[in-house]
Amino acid sequence: NVGLMQAVKRFDPEKGFRLATYAMWWIRAAIQEYILRSWSLVKLGTTSAQKKLFFNLRKAKARIGALEDGDLRPENVKQIAHDLNVSESEVVSMNRRLSGGDASLNATVSSDGEGTMQWQDWLEDENADQAAEFEARDELEVRRELLARAMDVLNDREKDILTQRRLSEPPKTLEDLAGVYGVSRERIRQIEVRAFEKLQQRMRELAAEKGLLEDA
Hints:
By secondary structure, this protein is mainly α. The chain has 3 domains: 39 residues; 60 residues; 80 residues, Winged helix-like DNA-binding domain superfamily/Winged helix DNA-binding domain (Arc Repressor Mutant, subunit A). The chain contains 9 helices and no strands. Helix 1 packs across helix 2, helix 1 crosses helix 6 and helix 7 crosses helix 9. The longest helix has 25 residues. The protein is elongated.
């Protein structure tokens, strides 16, 4: 839903791409973000280079015959950094991150488990207030609702024509819909363009109401 909403907001019909094709990129991006968030208890993949490494490091290592686990040899690090166009330090960091599992901060520092000092006791909490994190999570939920609400601005004919022309695979032709509604192909095209403009405008209005657009 998040990916589809982003596609609708950013889609420009003047560039010659169909909405369904354009939306696939944003939907895939949203899925990748979900995978990154779900992979580990610790956030990773916050930069484009880290995301590239997260999804391609394993294949890059296999391609050059590098060991699956453990640190990479310097020559392997250099080769992967060159192949993926990232820095060597980022390759080393991501490889160690993916090779190791998550460790509990509640575990005792003593290896025999008899001590009372935990690893979390060595950490300084620089952001005890997690309000920002919850706010960001709530905003994602709001965005998922915007598209469904925005569609309500269209009448039944506009919804059908827009769906058939831009969201269906394969899309209906202007001639097909002209026959269904008993109007000219040009009239169908006009309805389609107008419906999409209305949808975009409503999306902007709803986003502005929620404070999601700074320039709205």
